[in-house]
Write a structure and sequence with these properties.
Elements (H helix, E strand, L loop, with lengths): L1 H18 L8 E5 L5 H9 L4 E4 L2 H8 L12 E4 L8 H7 L2 E5 L2 H13 L4 E8 L9 E2 L3 H9 L4 E7 L12 H14 L4 E3 L6 H6 L4 E4 L1 H4 L7
Parallel strand pairs: 1-2, 1-9, 2-3, 3-4, 4-5, 5-6, 5-7, 7-8
Helix pairs in contact: 4-5
This protein binds pyridoxal-5'-phosphate.
The site of pyridoxal-5'-phosphate has 13 residues, from strand 9 and helix 9.
Amino acid sequence: MLIERAATIFRKMSHAAMRAGRNPESIKLIAVTKTVDIETIKEAIDAGLRVFGENRVQEALRKVRSEELGVRAEKIEWHLIGHLQKNKAKYAVQLFDLIHTVDSIELAEQLNKQAEKIGKVQRILVQVKLSEEETKHGVPEEELMPLLKKISGLKNLKLEGLMTIPPYFENSEEARPYFRKLREIRDAINLSFELSMGMSNDFEVAIEEGATMVRIGTAIFGMRNIHV
Ligand SMILES: *Cc1c(COP(=O)(O)O)cnc(C)c1O
């Protein structure tokens, strides 16, 4: 049952927080609903989940605007957790409360422009690339400060923190140095920044290292049959 799996996640999140001497309430669960249908999202809202993450603008469009959600839609937030192309910035600012994946000046400028057009201040995180994997998006560490500086001059963006996706490891302990690294970078910039890090297989390690948002899909909704 979805409600039981969600309860298990919340319990594990609390335990990980307590192990690290952190307040469990300082950590938000982002339920990742890519490939998940509307019926199941309704069930998740009824089970008490409030923040949902999508990784594609196109797929999110259908869900965020779905009539089927009805009044439930008023209770929830949508986050973009996947890579964003500049030409979709216009839709992204219409759909998402928080965009986790800003990783270039060009994208930041485009989001700022589109947000300004609709009179919105768009909340964002900057995605940092901490591994050499070709497939991973994100700004390399050495380009982070110039990007943050640029963003601070964009009036319709509100920078709230950093995000990262470490390589996948069978053993979640191997992801720990990446999470720790992002926390150290954050600590050197702004202690009140959010840290979006940790997925189904490694969220407890991420919380021990300071995650304030964990993005969890399969551990709540089960295996996705489409590989995304
Ligand atoms: C799919 C996805 C997740 C969730 O992954 P699970 O392993 O299913 O928990 C988290 N973050 C991003 C960026 C994703 O694309």
